[in-house]
Amino acid sequence: MFSKSSIKKTCEYCNKEYIPALYQFKRQKYCSLKCKWKTRVLREKELGIFKGGYNRETHIRLWLDAKAITDISAPCHYCGIALYPEKFVIEHKIPRVKLKTKAMTQDITNLVISCHNCNSEKSTTDYNDFIKRKHGRNK
Ligand SMILES: [Zn+2]
Ligand SMILES: [Zn+2]
Fold first, then answer.
1. Is this structure's pTM higher than 0.85?
2. Ligand nearest to the CA of 33
3. From the CA of 44, how far away is ligand 1's center (Å)?
């Protein structure tokens, strides 16, 4: 046998052999995101913190379908670009790392819709500082 088998790993969820993406050869434990997700659900069930079988995008989609809303977009809170549900992220105005309780992380007044760019650009920047940085030149 050739040592080519060494680039294969066995999925910790479904035991299928797979070839991990090079850049995460060591970190990757599952053949697919699906297996990764399923493992997480299992673990959360064991820990008793399982909150539901769907990821956030699926929840949003199902909600929209139920409401018969087909054409929906919302502007990014920071740059105003039109975003569709599968593209936007729920952004915490006060970064999550600075929030002490679960109630605080779920406080709706602290949540805005943001595009991925603004979300990663803002990161842990203070909300007001970031707004100033984004809109400073327009004022
Ligand atoms: Zn798998
Ligand atoms: Zn944006």
1. no
2. 1
3. 18
